Structures
1.
Amino acid sequence: MYAGYRLAGAGRASLTVGTVVVVALLLRGPFLFSPPFLSDDIHRYLFDGMVQQAGDSPYAVSPEAYETTDPIVSDLATKVNHPSLVTLYPPAAQLFFKLAAPLGMTGMKALLVLADMAVVGLLLLYLPRMGLPRHGVILYAWNPMVVWEIAWSGHTDALALPFLLAAGLLVVRKGRREAIMAGALFAVALWVKLIPVIFGPFFLLASRRRAGWFAAGGAVASTLLVGPYLPQMGNGVETLVLYGTTWEFSGFLFRTIRDLTGMNLVARLVMALLFCGGAGALLWRQWRTKMSHFHALGWAAFFWLLATPTLHPWYGLYLAMFLPLMGDTFNGKLLAPFLLTLTPLLGYVVLIDFFAHGVWLEGTWTPFWVFAIPLMALFCPKEPPAALPGAKLLKSLTNRF
């Protein structure tokens, strides 16, 4: 990925649309037909879908309390993680589960890869129109995190991405219809995975005088998606609250503050305030200096990944999608967001002891490096000081790649 991006940017390698697509498909193909190894979330997706196929609500009861005579559903219930909890996946994701579950695991992952490739197609189409290098699509299309988390693990974030990207492309256009469509698309992304809520203020600012129409489109789409799952959906909210107050993974900054204060909820509140402060600064800059909409979205995703108490590797998919739209990644400070699409994969080190001894125990250093590597890239100078030993050699090696 890195070599392809640098060589294409330097004009040393021709990069056609066909090359990008073919390589992206070749990277995804082997994982598409492989059972998930890094995450077992897809079993919950399949279970929720099969429950709906049987005419029941996925929000009604937990997998361990669900009564069925279907051996397939019973087997899925035993494979779901946290089977005592009702599903927390939003209505748009549930609709997808219902439609895709009869296709089985491979079929569901294939549909998610189609959504993933739709992002590749949109980037290939719009990067040149926005005056950005087309080869930037490599940073998403060939990114190992994107390949593994979608084609291998089959995370539903892949379904939210094309709706979120399409909404971002529409919201900056002038026109009432575009604002309504952008709001509807944003709502679909939000009800696939709630994570896009952090981008809501940026979309409202981008729509500016058409913010009302944007909100109206989102309200209509939300009503259509949420309505069929009421009132049982309230059970899922309870699981969501539990997730937001107790879950944690690979969040170095959160863990540090929690350990210093000895108070879990205080540390979570501090993280929320830190992110809101960073997002507020980005919103102010976007408003005052006409900062690029996608540039702001990318940095918002970056700050959120650093601040969230739960940093699952697939949460980096949003940053990976915005990365090609932020400019030249290896020019200036954009190297830090690029690295943060990769360092969360270090969190999978926890699986070594889990598979070998059945012990789920995060070390201290893994979250530190997930956090520290992008931060070092953010605050380090673009080029090494000339007086630094080996600086000329380092610079020559960098230029070659």
2.
Amino acid sequence: MSQFTKPIRSFAAHLVAAAAISAFSLAAVAQGASAQTARLGGVYDVTVAGLKIARGSLSLVVQGNAYSAKAGMEPAGIGTIFSTGKGGAQASGWLGRDNVRPSRYTMASRAADRDFYVDIALGGGRVKSADVTPKLKKSPERIKVTPQHTRKVVDPLSAILMPVPANKGAKNEAVCDRTLPVYDGWTRFDIQLSYKEMREVSGRGYDGPVVVCEARWIPVAGHRPSRIKASGIENRYMEAWLAPLGKSRVFVPYRIQMATATGTLVVEANRIKVYGGKDTAAR
């Protein structure tokens, strides 16, 4: 995997998944759609140290509480110099009152002349099957993924959906009070969010307040501790800017950033367009 794809795949796996980084507004119309069908299309930019390296795309359909999304990523800007790799991901499932219940996740990408593939089926709050390529190399150091690790998890793409109960008096800051249990087919990890501050943003399809959460990546299983320590990934600063779109209590990342050895990695919407549905702020 090239130097271009390594930081993107690593960060995406922590919060938005490889080849799914473009799906920031996945739930923008989910609770405002009722039984109607709503569709969303978007284009997203990925930069490192201010230089554009990739472009993401998204198509989404939400009907009632069911969602289905397809996202893709390809090199752009200076990224075309260092990599010809590209990939895509799909996810589907249902939105609960305060959680997400995914049913299927697939991802396929090619980078540095290698193919990466994931097919995960979920149901009843657990992973029913998982097919991945390539397989993890055997190592006595690697922490084994057990059935317990694959219960009550979400796939990387569905992990960006953050419904919050409309409790009386609940503040928007409460969206940061959560831990996302993610399984990507190879590894199991948590993303722990905590409240930092409120900000105002404009443009890119959303104008208004965002909740800024600090994010911490916590390895659970499937990893090699020595590799994690050497990479320093646990100590890298990450944050997510979450926007309440429309009148719903669904929050989605407006911007995600992470410190890397080569500069700050930023994933941010370039333009978003919604078709159908109602009470949405993304236009």
